[in-house]
Amino acid sequence: MSINPHMTVLGAIFLLLAISSQSAVALKVSFIDPCTVADFPALCRGTIKGQTNVNAATDVAIRELMKRTRHAKEIAKKEMKRDGGVATCLSNFNSAFDNLDKALTNIKENDGFSLNINLSAALTDYDTCSDAMKETRETNNVFYKSAGVLYQMADNCLALSTLVKQ
């Protein structure tokens, strides 16, 4: 029994086509749910509300984070002592809000590099808030927990930004 070399080549081509079509399906599935890249996918999905376009999903996620940051700033102003974790958070939330506003502009301008920088800066602002709350031992209040959610949302925004088309 001899092996036909043409059949071997055809078999190899068929195998490559099958593998590449599976890869294309896997790639398509990952863009149906942009939150597959997020560290907190359930929170991400709840935030982007079904958006499958990565630019739109990132925009929606940033706007929701800005809305929640605005709300956290209002709470911080009411609870603020002269110094302490909440005061630090208020300052950092103002900075984060400015960075998020710049990030929205970056999306419109298709500037992925600046988008990542501004979202990284916002993430650092939220992390600094959490650290300040830990240092002052103000970790048993609702404000500390909400700061943690803001950090997770910012982390998700940064993950989504890696998919934004440039």
TrEMBL record:
Keyword Repressor listed: no
Span of the signal peptide: 1-26
InterPro entries: Invertase/methylesterase_inhib, Pectinesterase_inhib_dom
GO MF: enzyme inhibitor activity
Domain Pectinesterase inhibitor residues, every copy: 27-160
Recorded superkingdom: Eukaryota
SUPFAM superfamilies membership: Plant invertase/pectin methylesterase inhibitor
Any matching Pfam family: PMEI
Gene3D superfamilies: Invertase/pectin methylesterase inhibitor family protein (1.20.140.40)
Keywords: Signal
Membrane spanning residue stretches: none
NCBIfam families reported in the protein's UniProt record: PME_inhib
Annotated protein name in UniProt: Pectinesterase inhibitor domain-containing protein
Species of the source: Arabis nemorensis
Biological classification of the source: Eukaryota, Viridiplantae, Streptophyta, Embryophyta, Tracheophyta
